[in-house]
Amino acid sequence: MKLIQNMINMKVNVITADELLKYAGQYNINISRSQAEKVAAFLRGKNFDIFNDQTRSQIIREVAKIAGPKTAKEINKLFIQFTR
Questions:
Q1: Selection from 18, 19, 17, 36 nearest residue 74 by Cα
Q2: Which residues span the domain enclosing 65?
Q3: Are 29 and 81 spatial neighbours (Cβ–Cβ below 8 Å)?
Q4: Residue 81 has what pLDDT?
Q5: pLDDT tens per residue, range 7-41
Q6: Collapsing DSSP states into helix, strand and coil, what is residue 35?
Q7: Residue 15: what pLDDT?
Q8: Measured between alpha carbons, how far is residue 13 from residues 28, 41, 63, 74 in Å?
Q9: Count of domains forming the chain
Q10: Which of 11, 20, 45, 77 is most deeply buried (CB count within 10 A of its CB)?
Q11: CA–CA separation, 62 vs 29, rounded Å?
Q12: What gap in Å lies between CA 80 and CA 39, rounded to an integer?
């Protein structure tokens, strides 16, 4: 299980706007290209653990500052899908 978590975290930490848009489309999450670019730029290069609730909450707060609370809520839905 830890291997899968590491793979998912690695993917989140190197995600591109195009990949974020692709995943959002797969899970029926509304996010604009501009928002995806900003969120991907924020996530890229960091070593986040989205399986840690506290870390995920911190990420979502930062995403809300970058792209707005509605987008942050959508991104949180996507993270929840990743962590199931």
A1: 36
A2: 2-83
A3: no
A4: 83
A5: 989 998 999 999 999 988 998 888 899 989 999 99
A6: helix
A7: 93
A8: 22, 10, 14, 18
A9: 1
A10: 20
A11: 19
A12: 16
